[in-house]
């Protein structure tokens, strides 16, 4: 088989493939055997008519067409492999010549993955703060545990205060008309949590059980429901119940109740250890993201539109799945937010383009550094999945079927590991990642 390749515009190539005559003849013979079993020819049992009879009955073209279906797909794959081409779309195939006793010639125009011009990807500097957990972080975590394990006491004769949990029925109107989604019953709300629209919770402070209140609010101008953004609304609210948290004292008994620790001091040490581990994981994740971002920014690649559109489509499908959980259709979501499909395309496109570029750059680095998933790593990953799902590894392997996706994921992870191992850690600039990270680590 001979195959030549010509580069066209926009990551397209034109393959011209010539398949040797003996292979073509074998395909023609196979095509005859297939077709003769499908065609009813008077005077012959199905599958028994000689070839010249079949050709006289249906002509040569159907036999040649069937032969093309047999020989072209594998020849096309072989040509791609020979020239190390990775197609990203279906090819446009043109049969140039197919005759008995002659080579078959076809052309295939296809868009392939673009060449990536890599920038520096070794020795990339990235900020890496130290793992620091202060006493205030431990105190904040203990406070959150105290809140989590608080008991709730029904309040009958006292007004609701910030921090109390109220159970309410409510019904809202906009311009004097009821509006879908602005009503509910037995709704649980912690006053001061900022769960609802600004101004709503504040107007319930001081309310008593069974009290009815009229609450006036204005939806923010950037409210997610476009038809309510900036609108004034009136709610009729009935307080059905008030519960107040009772916090247990922070002592040794509390430590025994909420953990396996015997003393409060042991619990504080355990909290510090867990916060440090979480902080370490957050720093490692931030470093990985930062290294990849710098390497991707330094690279140049002509993004194929077909890959970007597929990524946008995947994001839209994910959105639809999330909406299904809320029992909302995509059309309803778009209408509710004053959007159309073009708006979604514009919204998702920057992220999709970034994902595609990142994927192409990491693949190029893996190729340059000969990074691949080994069989041992695949087996280890399958064993890990088997433990997670409590299944037999062979069952997991069988369910996975084609392991190419698993191998790809391992390759990408190893490539990022390689970039991190070859990066240079530098202290964070003042007021940078470290302070932000400590705040995040402390809160829960």
From TrEMBL:
EC number annotated for this UniProt entry: 5.2.1.8
An example of a Pfam family matching this protein is Trigger_C
Catalyzed reactions per annotation = [protein]-peptidylproline (omega=180) = [protein]-peptidylproline (omega=0)
Q: State the top-level EC class.
A: isomerase
The domain of life is Bacteria
Which family does the record claim for this protein? Belongs to the FKBP-type PPIase family. Tig subfamily.
User: What's the protein called, per UniProt?
Assistant: Trigger factor
Which species is this record about? Neomoorella humiferrea
Gene this protein is translated from = tig
């Amino acid at each position: 088989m001979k195959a030549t390749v010509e580069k066209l515009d926009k990551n397209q190539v034109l393959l011209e493939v010539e398949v040797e005559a003996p292979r073509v003849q074998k395909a023609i013979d196979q095509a005859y055997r297939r077709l003769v079993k499908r065609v009813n020819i008077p005077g012959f049992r199905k599958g028994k008519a000689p070839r010249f009879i079949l050709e006289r009955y249906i002509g040569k073209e159907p036999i040649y067409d069937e032969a093309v279906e047999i020989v072209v797909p594998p020849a096309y794959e072989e040509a791609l492999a020979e020239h190390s081409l990775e197609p990203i779309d279906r090819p446009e195939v043109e049969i140039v010549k197919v005759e008995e006793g002659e080579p078959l010639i076809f052309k295939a125009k296809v868009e392939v993955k673009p060449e990536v011009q890599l920038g520096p990807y070794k020795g990339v500097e990235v900020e890496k703060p130290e793992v620091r957990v202060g006493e205030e972080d431990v105190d904040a975590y203990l406070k959150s545990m105290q809140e989590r394990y608080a008991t709730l006491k029904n309040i009958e004769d006292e007004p609701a205060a910030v921090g109390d949990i109220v159970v309410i029925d409510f019904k809202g109107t906009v311009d004097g008309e009821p509006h879908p989604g602005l009503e509910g019953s037995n709704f649980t709300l912690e006053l001061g949590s900022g769960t609802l629209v600004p101004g709503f919770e504040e107007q319930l402070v001081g309310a008593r059980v069974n009290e009815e209140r009229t609450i006036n609010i204005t939806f923010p101008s950037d409210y997610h429901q476009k038809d309510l953004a900036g609108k004034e609304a009136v709610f009729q609210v009935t307080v059905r119940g008030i519960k107040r948290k009772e916090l247990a004292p922070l002592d040794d008994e509390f430590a025994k109740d909420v953990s396996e620790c015997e003393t409060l001091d042991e619990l504080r040490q355990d909290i510090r250890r867990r916060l440090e581990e979480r902080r370490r994981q957050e720093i490692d994740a931030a470093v990985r993201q930062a290294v990849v971002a710098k390497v991707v920014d330094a690279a140049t690649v002509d993004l194929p539109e077909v890959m970007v559109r597929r990524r946008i489509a995947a994001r839209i499908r994910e959105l639809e799945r999330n909406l299904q959980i809320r029992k909302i259709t995509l059309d309803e979501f778009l209408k509710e937010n004053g959007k159309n499909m073009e708006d979604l395309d514009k919204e998702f496109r920057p992220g999709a383009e970034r994902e595609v570029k990142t994927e192409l750059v990491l693949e190029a680095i893996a190729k340059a550094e000969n990074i691949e998933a080994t069989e041992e790593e695949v087996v280890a990953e399958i064993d890990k999945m088997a433990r997670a799902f409590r299944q037999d590894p062979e069952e997991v392997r069988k369910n996975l079927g084609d392991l190419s996706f698993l191998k790809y994921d391992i390759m990408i992870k190893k490539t990022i590991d390689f970039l991190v191992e070859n990066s240079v850690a530098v202290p964070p600039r003042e007021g940078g990642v470290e302070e932000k990270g400590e705040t995040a680590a402390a809160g829960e």
